[in-house]
Amino acid sequence: MNRLLPLGIIALAILALAMLFLVIGPAMQIAPVKAPDQLEPYSKAELRGRAHYVNLGCVYCHSQQPRSPEQALDQTRGWGRASTPADYVYDRPHQLGTMRTGPDLLNVGARLPSRGWQLTHLYAPRAIHEDSIMPAFPFLFETKDAPEAGDVVVNVPDKFAPKGQVVVALQAALDLVAYLRSLDRSYPAVHRDLRDNGYR
Asked: Which of 8, 109, 118, 173 makes the best surface tag, with the fewest CB within 10 Å?
């Protein structure tokens, strides 16, 4: 019984140290990081698309953190410069990801800015890359006999298109593509400014 008090104090001290070094310290380190001038907050459509990105589990196969040349070949793969804390100012929570079954997506808005390309890729990934293992998301689209006013028709190759019908993007697909197109952190000055201020 006499040992419970010292044991409790030691446990609380370890918990306090862990909190200081793993939560409070890092939070203080990134608190002064401001959004670069080129980076704008997500629009409502992009935020809805971000929610679809999370709900569809895209983060399980795609990262959003290009690494430095010393760590990986991400720049030579065309994924852009290494990410910095400022790249994620508007991301709560961030979607860094842990696996790379598919390519890194942080700069996909710069690499593949075409809305049409992105919509076709979501509807039928193998229409773009025949060896792709990405799942198709046909439930984000609707098939119609003829498009109506305001419909966004997706250009799908004949091999993947429904016979005699057109594929029309639903709002969820348009929002997801808006989010993907917003992922553009290709401005080089950001990395240089942060590096000069002690961030690597």
From this structure: 8
Separation CA 170–CA 32 (nearest Å):
40
Q: Would you say residue 136 lies in a domain?
A: yes
Instruction: List the one residue out of 71, 49, 70 whose CA is nearest residue 58.
Output: 49
Q: What is the DSSP letter of 142?
A: E
* Neighbour tally for 81: CB within 10 Å: 21
Mean pLDDT by 10 residues, the chain (200 residues): 82 92 80 81 96 95 91 87 87 88 92 94 95 95 93 94 94 97 76 40
80 with 74: CB under 8 angstroms? Answer: yes
C-alpha to C-alpha distance for 10 and 197, rounded to whole angstroms: 38
Q: Give the integer Cα–Cα distance in Å for 127 and 161.
A: 10
Full residue range of the structural domain in which residue 98 is found: 44-196
Asked if residue 38 is part of any domain, the answer here is no
- How far is the C-alpha of 57 from the C-alpha of 198, rounded, in Å? 34
